[in-house]
């Protein structure tokens, strides 16, 4: 049986992703009514989490989510495994599959995630790579829908580095959920033309501006992320190139009056966003962080159930 991996939003069937989202909303409501009502869904099962980059939210929210489902967790620093001494990813996948029921990986190269999934007999979940961060954006879409209803047809503005992992997953989401992604970024930090083309071909609407004011006009939701993601070694250049892309109160006022502000966190106040915005009334960043746990509980349950 092929395991149910969660590698990227656009690797699922659209209807499957929509069902998973509906389930995440339902499961959160059920959990909030009676947290023990879902405490059997992963009973006796073990999640291994492999990290080769730092994490606060992903690590803790997955750990807690698995325990809430009645399962157990093992957290591993990838560099402390024999992987760090050259054991192959394929052998690591085969061995871990004999011990655990599901694997979450946070790493640099997306190819390593795909290789792990190819050789694992258990589901593999993408906990962030240099290319994408699907769990984050799944939780973000869930958060949007809680505040403003269905995301389909709405206008979502992304301001700043539009070529990073979170932005890429937002492009994937645009094609799967059918909203308008209005991007403002310098030319050097645009999403790749191939990704834009693929997103458009799958029905996503992407509009790219250089001027943040144009991108944000009338938006239902404003998003940004750090200018220097983990692993980027050109911080000074990025700070200079992106300094006109800060989300401040003046820019935020050009979005729709009901607009929410989201950021995956961790944030750099005074760089990509001002404290006034991220700590202000339109910001839902901590609800978004909480939803990582609710979303991933649904993702884990989906991965673990048989086809
Ligand atoms: N947003 C997010 O993935 O946070 P961590 O890096 O803390 O896991
Ligand atoms: N783009 C950020 C996301 C962190 C959750 C990074 O990769 O550092």
Brief write-up:
This protein is an alpha/beta fold and 307 residues long.
Kindly provide the name of the CATH class of the largest domain: Alpha Beta
Major sheet description: 5 strands, parallel
Strand content: 5-15%
The CATH architecture assignment of the largest domain turns out to be: 3-Layer(aba) Sandwich
* Cα gyration radius (Å): 19 Å
Shape: globular
Number of domains: 2
Which structural class should the secondary elements be placed in? alpha/beta
Give the CATH superfamily of the largest domain: Aspartate/ornithine carbamoyltransferase
Element order: H for helix, E for strand = HEHEHEHEHEHEHEHEHHEHH
**Low-confidence regions:** none
Q: Which ions and ligands are bound to the chains?
A: phosphoric acid mono(formamide)ester, norvaline
State mean pLDDT (0 to 100 scale): 97
The largest sheet has its strands arranged as 7-6-5-8-9
The count of DSSP E runs of length 2 or more, i.e. the number of strands, is: 9
**Separation, N- and C-terminal Cα atoms:** 8 Å
Number of helical regions: 12
Secondary structure: helix percent: 40-55%
Task: Describe the fold and architecture.
The protein folds into two domains: 9-133 and 292-304, Rossmann fold; 136-288, Rossmann fold. 43% of the residues lie in helices and 14% in strands. It is built from twelve helices and nine strands. The strands form two sheets. The chain has a five-stranded parallel beta sheet with strand order 7-6-5-8-9. Strands 2-1-3-4 form a four-stranded parallel beta sheet, sandwiched between helices. α1 packs across α12 (285-304). The chain binds phosphoric acid mono(formamide)ester (CP) and norvaline (NVA). Norvaline (NVA) binds at residues 128, 164-166, 225-226, 229-230, 264. Residues 153-303 form the Aspartate/ornithine carbamoyltransferase Asp/Orn-binding domain. Pathway: Amino-acid biosynthesis; L-arginine biosynthesis; L-arginine from L-ornithine and carbamoyl phosphate: step 1/3. One of its GO terms (biological process) is L-arginine biosynthetic process via ornithine. It comes from Dichotomicrobium thermohalophilum.
């Amino acid at each position: 049986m092929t395991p149910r991996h969660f590698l990227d939003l656009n690797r699922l069937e659209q209807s499957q992703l929509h069902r998973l989202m509906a389930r995440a909303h339902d499961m959160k409501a059920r959990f909030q009514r009676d947290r023990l009502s879902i405490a059997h869904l992963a009973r006796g099962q073990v999640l291994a989490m492999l990290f080769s980059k730092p994490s606060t939210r992903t690590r803790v929210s997955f750990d807690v989510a698995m325990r809430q489902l009645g399962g157990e967790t093992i957290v591993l620093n990838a560099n402390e495994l024999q992987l760090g001494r050259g054991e192959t990813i394929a052998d690591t996948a085969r061995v871990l599959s004999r011990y655990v029921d599901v694997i979450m990986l946070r790493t640099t190269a997306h190819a390593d995630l795909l290789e792990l999934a190819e050789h694992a007999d258990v589901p593999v979940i993408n906990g962030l790579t240099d290319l994408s961060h699907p769990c984050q954006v799944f939780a973000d879409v869930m958060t949007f829908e809680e505040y403003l209803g269905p995301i389909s047809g709405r206008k979502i503005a992304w301001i700043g580095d539009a070529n990073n992992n979170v932005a890429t997953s937002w492009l994937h989401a645009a094609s799967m959920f059918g909203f308008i992604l209005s991007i403002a970024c310098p030319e050097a930090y645009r999403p790749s033309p191939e990704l834009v083309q693929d997103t458009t071909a799958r029905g996503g609407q992407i509009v790219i501006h250089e001027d943040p004011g144009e991108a944000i006009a009338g938006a239902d939701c404003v998003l940004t992320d750090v200018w220097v993601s983990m692993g980027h070694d050109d911080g000074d250049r990025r700070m200079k190139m992106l300094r006109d892309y800060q989300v401040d109160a003046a820019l935020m006022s050009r979005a729709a009056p009901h607009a929410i502000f989201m950021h995956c966190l961790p944030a750099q106040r005074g760089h990509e966003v001002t404290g006034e915005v991220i700590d202000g009334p339109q910001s839902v960043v901590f609800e978004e962080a909480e939803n990582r746990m609710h979303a991933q509980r649904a993702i884990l349950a989906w991965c673990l159930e048989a086809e």
